[in-house]
Amino acid sequence: MDKININSSGLYDLDCEFLGESLKEKAVACIQAQKKAAIQSYSSFSPCEDALDRVSESALNAIIADNIDIHGVATDSTISNVIMFGAKHIDKSINDHYVEQQRIEVDKIIKEKLLDIFTDDSGNIENQELTIVSSGHFWYPQGAFMSWHTNSQVPGWRVYINYAEQENQSFFRYQDDDNNVITLNDKQWNLRIFKITEQQPLWHCVYSNTNRFSLGYMVKIKPKPNLLQKIKRKLQALF
């Protein structure tokens, strides 16, 4: 697995051998728990008839022409019809204890693996502090989408592990640094990593014509404090 320089940008569509069988098994267990917990939401799910239009290049051009920024589903629930899990700040989210426990098992492994992915200009990140937190946890049934958005209000690296029950029936689409719209069709397992900055938002969207499951993470990287800074922080805490 090639390293990702924390000072770089763009999107990385990575080889899923990196995930390993143990992580995949735990992710499948999480998916099964999702299906059970969301059976009522799934039975009442209505596919969006114009989903493909909402994730089209012309839809993105219209948004950009209007000079608006769509941060994501957390602040604008109208941009998606996905089934959400564990987002307690969103009314329609499913908050199930067993799903959460399965997600925690996946998170433990992926967090350890992510520490081995990133590097810097010197070839290591010994002087960097990585914070990895869970973010989006979604089920995209057939006819589900998440239209164009940037996540610009929460900058940092984004990581998504996706599982699609049928290959080439769903996709991740984004606009690259040269303003080209790129479509990445989903294999069964997908691992994609990209950087979000306030200055250079990365517009992206998702469409699914199959059952597609997504686990997301945010990776924030900052310099580790030196000894003097640590002492200063302790003194400030005391006084």
What's the layout of helices and strands?
Elements: E1 4-5, E2 11-14, H1 20-37, H2 39-43, H3 51-54, H4 57-65, E3 83-84, H5 97-114, E4 118-119, E5 128-140, E6 144-149, E7 156-164, E8 170-175, E9 181-185, E10 189-196, E11 204-208, E12 212-223, H6 227-238
What does it look like?
This protein has a single domain (4-238), classed as Jelly Rolls. Helix content is 28%, strand content 31%. It has six helices and twelve strands. It has a six-stranded antiparallel β-sheet, with helices on one face. It has a four-stranded antiparallel β-sheet with strand order 6-11-8-9. The longest helix is centred in the first third of the chain and has 18 residues, at 20-37. It starts with a strand and ends with a helix. The mean pLDDT is 89.
Which key terms come to mind for this protein?
6 helices, 31% strand, 12 strands, Jelly Rolls, 4-stranded antiparallel beta sheet, 6-stranded antiparallel beta sheet, alpha+beta, 239 residues
